[in-house]
Amino acid sequence: MKKLILVIAISLSLVANNAVAFSPRQIVAQGPGDHIHGMDISYWQHPSGGLIDFKKMYAAGVRFVMIKGADAHDVADAQALKYLKIDRPAAQAARLYTGFYYYAYLPDSTDPAFIIKDAQAQAQKVIWRLASIGGYNFKDLPLSLDLENNCVRPSSNGGCSRYMNRNNVTLWAKTWLAMVSAKTNRRPFLYSYANFLEQTLTRDTELRQYPLWIAHYSLNPADSQPNQKNVGCYAHAWTNANCTANWQMWQYTSCGIASKYGVPGNRVDLNVFAGTSSQFYRLLSRRWVPEETDMLPEDEATTMNIIDQTSSDTNAPLKVTVDVMRPDGTPVVAGTVNWQSADSTQPLGVQTVTRSATGRFVLNVKGLAAGSYVGVVNFVDISGTHAANQLPITFTIVQGATPTPTPTPTKTPKPPVDTCAGQIRI
Predict the structure, then answer these.
(1) Per-residue pLDDT tens over the stretch 41-68
(2) Which of the two ends of the chain, N or C, has the fewest CB atoms closer than 10 A to its terminal CB?
């Protein structure tokens, strides 16, 4: 009798803690093709700070929502964290399952050791983010790596002057996925487009071990499968012998009718899950509770090193490449750099910073007058993770030739483009 009372008490305690508040029978497949219906959201689904009505979302048949929870770039990362803290508990309270994804940027390097180090640093950032919200609970899907851009050197005209090759993209992805998997005891999803998977990653059997979240629009899950071309299919690590893809989640449109699902704005991404409710439920079966050492550091000491410095004349920018490292020699995961003159009366020029890799910053300073300069390169981190630092720097700018002005061509206005043309609006 005592044992029976104890079992009942434990069961009631678990329910009270929401550990088993849901069961597979409650995951109703109401999406197209009788799939479990899902959605993914980010900062863009909060125009003017508007909040999402997750109860309305649930009532519309959605059962899971993937939330942007982190980003390799600091401003976007701060936005992601803000809404992750709002959306995750609100969605779970409305009986939705949640996951979060990390948007990655690849390093501007061809050195395999450097690429591995960068992937490990970005994986550490995600692990810290998950730890900061208490780890996985039983309503959380595994983390997702959003990998859809292999441009490592954007050009000034908005294009790209350098892309990472497929072997190095694959090395980076495998490193990130393996580190997150080992730490959290769950295999993360990899999100990408079908053509990106074919063109940018190798057909590596290790990649196939991770669940695929595939983006492929203009096909209806009610009567189609992703990964199909007009002739044939996309060939990548997750492609099966029959030309289908071994996918777990499919983002089938970016043109969902937002208001129908309680989302501010006009449109939203919609997804379906490939398997049964039992298969879905197995994704939620493991918790990960972080230890103290897994938590994000505060004001952690940093070291700096100027890797390269170039200055010429008034027509070319000062260019400084800086590495900023943590105490254990790994790159910092947040922050930026700037230049500050020792003479407070000197103009500071127009400063832009690109992060060519995690912890490596390229500072460009344009518009400086001819002369000699003494100052410092500062490292600052608005997130408070890494401590500020600085290095002295001196350089000389000589007078360049007066550039010949070029006339600005008259641009003909282009008609608006319907970005939802051919997509499902549901």
Answers:
(1) 999 999 999 999 999 999 999 999 999 9
(2) N
Burial 180-213 (b: 16+ CB within 10 A, else e): bbebbebbbbbbbbbebbbebbbebeebeebbbb
Residue at token pair 């079966």: 285
- Sheet containing strand 303-310, strands side by side: 303-310, 318-325, 360-366, 350-357
Which residue carries 């039983």 as its tokens?
138
**Residue 386 contacts residue 334 (beta carbons within 8 Å):** yes
**Could you tell me if 350 and 313 are in contact, meaning their C-beta atoms sit under 8 angstroms apart?**
no
pLDDT at 18 over 60: no
Alpha-carbon distance 110 to 39, whole Å? 36
Contact 257, 69 (CB under 8 A): no
Rounded to 5 degrees, φ, ψ at 385 are -70, -45
Cα distance between residue 389 and residue 45, in whole Å: 36
Q: How many whole angstroms separate alpha carbon 204 and alpha carbon 238?
A: 9
Residue from 229, 255, 170 nearest 204 by CA: 170
Cβ–Cβ under 8 Å, residues 339 and 363: yes
Q: What angle do CA 351, 79, 95 make, to 5 degrees?
A: 165
- Can you tell me the distance from the alpha carbon of 54 to that of 96, in angstroms, rounded to the nearest whole number? 8
List, for residues 131-187, the tens digit of each pLDDT value.
999 999 999 999 999 999 999 999 888 899 999 999 999 999 999 999 999 999 999
Name the residue among 167, 176, 175, 248 with its Cα closest to residue 201: 167
